[in-house]
Amino acid sequence: MSNSAVDGLDSGLSQKSARIGVVGLGYVGLPLIWTFHERGFPVLGFDVDAEKPRLLKAGKTYIRHFTEDRIASLARSDRFDATTDFSRIPEADVLLLCVPTPLDEHREPDMSYVEGTVATIGPHLRKGQMVILESTTYPGTTREIIVRECERLSGLKSGEDFFVAYSPEREDPGNPNFETATIPKVVGAEGKEALDLAVLLYSKVISQVVPVSDTPTAEAVKLVENIFRSVNIALVNELKVVFHSMGIDIYEVIEAAKTKPFGFMPFYPGPGLGGHCIPIDPFYLTWKAREFGLNTRFIELAGEINTAMPDYVVRRCMEALNDQGKALRGARVLCVGLAYKPNVDDMRETPTLVVMEKLRAYGAEVSYYDPLIPVIPRTREHPEWEGEESVSWDDETLRGFDMAVVLTKHSDVEHERLVETVGCVVDTRAAIESRKGVYRA
């Protein structure tokens, strides 16, 4: 074992002179690079999208909840740089990999971003560096892809020449109560030296570090966190459908149930799962379990229930219009809220686009309103909506619709106004008090 590799990195981390490289400057990477810089480390950002380094160096933000004053502090600093030039990988002492891990068209893990990143950085690795994967993934990824491919491409040995760890990101974009530095950090590594170094690294910037025995355990932690949410959301989604048929409001039930001070945790129904984790992570474990000849029936059933929610919303739209003496075909429908959750401009895996697509397939004329997403960007799953613009939020425009569907509950949107102007509202988020013309879905 190369003690000099351990000692050199240990010293650099202790003195905050080690340069932290962040690969992928999106919703996870940008907060990370800012946090390390804020705590005194020199930082270097990498991204294949040239626009991101350009904007950061100009002091401009591209993530709404990450304010421009923070970006400006980076841009002014001589401890910050960002680039698309991956030949500069040797300049970083630590490499934090924050790249997407989506699903492919068969709902199986798409590891192309991780594999592509490793293929890019591998030939540039040098002795004494540490590589940490933060992307959500299946147990075994760090060993099967990061360690194996980095060793093959660099000719170096993990645990001797360079060090490898896994630490799942836990960002909650737009949540003002938690930020990178205050969210406990789970860390697993390949070997004791690597774990000690990873714990030292994160302890310099994060209030609590939680070491676990190895990288597969750390990878499993993130999956458990999000599968827990997925199955509980599926439960209340199913209860929503059942209780509606009984004339019972699921939201009133949950509000009363959560007054029990023990043994109950409230989850809320919706039009389907959204975001970069909860709709995706369960399928990573399901896929990996098949390698061991195991089925994850409970997890898969939850996925089926959540995936079916857009169909339920469309069915409720039909019922609402029928109640008004109208048909869905030819109806002008306004979908309110494009982001996958309130008060962010993030539309990854948003169920709104699925609902919009299904409504259009039934012959409805579909528009949307979201004050945070004025134009729909290109998405891999729904490219046909690219360039669609949000309608105006004025009485004249709203009165031109036969029905509105509330799909995201942004704080700054006056949802009650829809009752007065549109008159027929399908509400999937309990944004409007129950009354005539409001239909829960």
Question: How does this structure look, described?
Answer:
- This protein has helices spanning 3-14, 29-38, 51-57, 68-75, 112-121, 141-154, 192-203, 215-245, 250-257, 281-291, 297-307, 309-323, 351-361, 395-398, 416-421, and strands at residues 20-23, 43-46, 80-83, 94-97, 130-133, 163-166, 185-189, 209-211, 332-336, 365-369, 403-406, 425-427, 438-440.
- The protein has 441 residues and is of the alpha/beta class.
- It has two domains: 3-217, NAD(P)-binding Rossmann-like Domain (Rossmann fold, 3-Layer(aba) Sandwich), CATH 3.40.50.720; 239-440, 3-Layer(aba) Sandwich (Rossmann fold), CATH 3.40.50.720.
- An eight-stranded mixed sheet has the order 3-2-1-4-5-6-7-8, with helices on both faces.
- Strand 7 (185-189), helix 7 and strand 8 form a beta-alpha-beta unit.
Task: Output the keywords.
Rossmann fold, 441 residues, alpha/beta, elongated, five-stranded parallel β-sheet, single chain, 12% strand
Brief description of this entry?
By secondary structure, this protein is an alpha/beta fold. It has 15 helices and 13 strands.
Layout of strands and helices, then pairs:
Elements lengths: L2 H12 L5 E4 L5 H10 L4 E4 L4 H7 L10 H8 L4 E4 L10 E4 L14 H10 L8 E4 L7 H14 L8 E4 L18 E5 L2 H12 L5 E3 L3 H31 L4 H8 L23 H11 L5 H11 L1 H15 L8 E5 L14 H11 L3 E5 L25 H4 L4 E4 L9 H6 L3 E3 L10 E3 L1
Parallel strand pairs: 1-2, 1-4, 2-3, 4-5, 5-6, 7-8, 9-10, 9-11, 11-12, 12-13
Antiparallel strand pairs: 6-7
Helix pairs in contact: 1-7, 5-6, 8-10, 8-11, 12-13
